[in-house]
Amino acid sequence: MRISEVKSTTREQRIASHTHIKGLGLRDDGRAHAQADGFVGQDSAREACGILVDLIKSKKMAGRALLLTGAPGTGKTAIALAISQELGPKVPFCPMVGSEVYSSEVKKTEVLMENFRRAIGLRIKETKEVYEGEVTELTPEEIENPLGGYGKTLAHVIIGLKTVKGTKQLKLDPSIFESIQKERVTVGDVIYVEANTGAVKRVGRSDAYATEFDLEAEEYVPLPKGEVHKKKEVVQDVSLHDLDIANARPQGGQDIMSMMGQLMKPKKTEITDKLRKEINKVVNKYIDQGIAELVPGVLFIDEVHLLDIECFTYLNKALESPISPIVIFATNRGMCQIRGTEDIIAPHGIPIDLLDRILIIRTLPYTQEDIKAIVQIRAKIEGLTLTDDVLNDMAVTGEKTSLRYVIQLLTPASILARTHGREQILLEDIKEVDELFYDAKASALTLTKYHSSYVP
Ligand SMILES: Nc1ncnc2c1ncn2[C@@H]1O[C@H](COP(=O)(O)OP(=O)(O)OP(=O)(O)O)[C@@H](O)[C@H]1O
Ligand SMILES: [Mg+2]
């Protein structure tokens, strides 16, 4: 038997430009602080999202959808990420961009379906029979290879486990030794071995060893109480997609397999509709029995106008499902053609029937004061210093062009300042980069002026 942890397949977030956003910055009464958690201004949008977060936490929002609209650079993506921060790490948050559905390998609806399932969490509480304790000895015992030949093979492993109450010596199968090695268990670690499956889990380092010289970040845990052999409540947070993967490729995810396996025979397959249906069935059974709890999370679809009519039809249906996450869309488009149709113009490029079931939050353009405050936050994060006249100038430029444009000027301006042997960014640096680069509006203007000299 092979054992390994179910790795959560949560995706890395593309948030380098949003690292300063730590939450929605709301007071306890739900009103927005003028500036908090890295957020400045945009008060009503933030307050509306605060209500949404409460609804999600009290599980009253499943299957609903929200649309963030507003001009480019008004903080739509930032607000969505702030919502995910407010929800905390236990609530799944799956970000994607509309264009991700276009792959030559996978169907569009398949991509959507997968992300829907990434956004639905399941908290499983199981009482397991385990052997738990601090490892006092770890001795693999070898014998002559029974099939002849020269090598020796592993017969079994002797492992000593200690708790406050006593110690126990276990003789384990070689296959379990593999998972002990995978978890990098050494003498002095606190581990538990599941009695039924042999799955090994390293809890941490025993705090008796806390004084040893250690450069790595270690988690020290106390010596377990009670007997070595006992029943233990184990809580796991996984997404439905994690379950899909674990069951499609049974060599991964023994922990979940131990429970899923009791009800269905997993085979090595791809993730299919049939497999998902079966998993849903098992999940529903576990929810009914009170072993598992559904945690609907958030699916965030940025640049939603990039989806086409086929995807929208699918979304309409998916939102009706009893197990559906909250979906947050964002777009900066006004009236535009729905992709995949010949001539249907709709607000935000979203079909009216879908739009009809969505709550809409608008983000407004920033004032110069807001822009100043945001630029200052970004400068601090990037370790840059600016003079006051730089800030004022950027606020004026930002109002004319966009917040994103001025934020993007920061890094080149700092490079320029450094080549001049300065640490501080002066007005002349900003002026110079502003001349070197075009913002979107200026570029569009140039194009209309000189359009004859470009290739049509
Ligand atoms: N109110 C705010 N407070 C602090 N930072 C902000 C705020 N609004 C936007 N920002 C920052 O400004 C930059 C641009 O904002 P963002 O990417 O969220 O805009 P957007 O509305 O998603 O634009 P687009 O429509 O082009 O996708 C980001 O770095 C974001 O973190
Ligand atoms: Mg955006």
UniProtKB/TrEMBL annotation:
GO terms for molecular function: ATP binding; DNA helicase activity; hydrolase activity. GO terms for biological process: chromatin organization; DNA repair. Keywords: Activator, ATP-binding, Chromatin regulator, DNA damage, DNA repair, Helicase, Hydrolase, Nucleotide-binding, Nucleus, Transcription, Transcription regulation. Pfam families: TIP49, TIP49_C. It catalyses: ATP + H2O = ADP + phosphate + H(+). Residues 62-365 form the AAA+ ATPase domain. Coiled coil: none annotated. Its EC number is 3.6.4.12. SUPFAM superfamilies: P-loop containing nucleoside triphosphate hydrolases (SSF52540). The keyword Membrane does not apply. Its main location: nucleus. It is found in: Nucleus. InterPro entries: AAA+_ATPase, P-loop_NTPase, RuvB-like, RuvB-like_C, RuvBL1/2_DNA/RNA_bd_dom, TIP49_P-loop. Transmembrane segments: none annotated. It is an enzyme of class 3 (hydrolase). Belongs to the RuvB family. DNA helicase participates in several chromatin remodeling complexes, including the SWR1 and the INO80 complexes. PANTHER family: RUVB-RELATED REPTIN AND PONTIN (PTHR11093). This is RuvB-like helicase. It comes from Ambispora gerdemannii.
